[in-house]
Amino acid sequence: MKILIVDDSLLDRKLLSRSLTNAGVKNEILQAENGEAALGIIAQHMDEICLMFCDYQMPNMSGIELMEGLVSVPATARIPIIMITASANEESKQAAYAVNPNLAGYIVKPYKPEEILAAMKPYVQF
Amino acid sequence: MSNSKPDIFFDGENQDLWLLSKILISAVKKLLAQKGDIYLSQDPIVYEKEIVPFAGRMRIDGLEKFGARTIVSAISFYMDKGHMDSQRALGALVVYIPEDYIARFMWLLGYGRIDEDDEAEILDSCGTAANLIAGFFVKELSSFGYIHLEMSHFETFINSSINGIDFSPAEVVKHEMAFFIRGDKRLVMELTMGRLQSY
Q1: Residues 58-87 of chain A whose Cβ lies under 8 A from any Cβ of chain B
Q2: For residues A51 and A39, what is the distance between their CA atoms, to the nearest angstrom?
Q3: Which of B64, B92, B100, B180 could pair with B41 as two cysteines, CB 3.0-4.6 Å apart?
Q4: d(CA B55, CA A70)
Q5: What CATH class has B17-193?
Q6: How far is A47 from chain B (nearest CA, A)?
Q7: Cα distance between residue B30 and residue B187, in whole Å
Q8: Which residues of A touch B106 (CB under 8 A)?
């Protein structure tokens, strides 16, 4: 099973990927730099993706818009999504949960690795 | 700094920009301390400067900040998503970092080693830093009773932006502040903001 990281920041993708690897996560980690790329990866690996990390602010297609599309399709609605954002405001968090009531987590940057691990624990085997 | 909620309902330019600049400085201090255990050598001095508009956008120039090759990242702020979709910005934050300091800065922020020969990583570093700063700023604004602002994705440039960035055309001034770390000027930020409602 695979984990997908969607973030327009190369550094944030590398940081998260490194956090997962250092924690002993054995799953293959896929990366997408924007929503469109993420959709392409999901289409290709739909049945293999066990978890998705998604940035909130991205160009062209925001994380919210990407998530909105995914939850509207039964085949992709089952993918657990953890949203990662630089915006700590309650309004942003409420907007995310309004789009996806089953959101697996909402984590604010800069995060501690323990926060990531705690959020993903139900979905990934270490 | 007082935590009292300011009364900012008035017409014209945002005369509250001085307070917002102090809030930005506070946010930056918190981010640096929390993320990298970094402390400023001195409190930044805030300078008011005229905005140079071009075709409805704000021009930015990084070379003058450090006299060296500078990476510049900008994030615009909007009242809500609708305003963001129609590109009606309320304000903007511009972060300038000298290219020869970026790798060190990102290391201090916990991002690990940056490939200084990879221009994509260098550009992305500045944008990532600007994104963090803007996020802390928006959060700090909320704690002072201001409304939540939507943040744009960051735009990054080398030295300057030909096309400028989105800002509130009602504003004619911006605030510039330099951040000194271990005695050296390491970051420069510019902030412009229109009238900001509070709760």
Answers
A1: 58-59, 85-87
A2: 14
A3: B180
A4: 38
A5: alpha beta
A6: 30
A7: 15
A8: 11
Question: Domain locations in chain B?
Answer: 17-193
pLDDT digits (tens, 9 = 90+) for B36-62: 889 999 999 999 999 998 888 999 989
Contacts of B144 in chain A (CB under 8 A): none
Q: How far apart are CA B18 and CA A116, in angstroms?
A: 37
Quick one: pLDDT at residue A57? 87
Residue of B nearest to A112 (CA): B35
What pTM value is reported for the model? 0.87
Q: pLDDT tens digits, residue range B58-87?
A: 999 898 999 999 999 999 999 888 888 898
Residue B14, pLDDT score: 66
Are A88 and B128 within 8 A, CB to CB?
no
Confidence of residue B10 (pLDDT cuts 50, 70, 90): very low
d(CA A75, CA A46): 8
Q: Is A2-120 in CATH node 3.40.50.2300?
A: yes
The stretch A25-45 carries a mean pLDDT of 94
Q: What is the DSSP secondary structure assignment for residue A81, as one 8-state letter?
A: E
CB spacing of B112 vs A87 below 8 angstroms: no
Query: Rounded to whole angstroms, how far apart are CA atoms B97 and B188?
Result: 7
Other beta carbons within 10 angstroms of residue B73's beta carbon come to: 27
Q: Per DSSP, what are the bridge partners of residue B174?
A: B49
Strands B155-158 and A49-55: unpaired
Cβ under 8 Å to A: B residues 114-133: 114, 120-121, 124-125, 127-128, 131-132
Contact B128 A110 (CB under 8 A): no
Report how far apart, in Å, the C-alpha atoms of A86 and of each of A7, A92, B112, B137, B152 are.
12, 10, 19, 10, 11
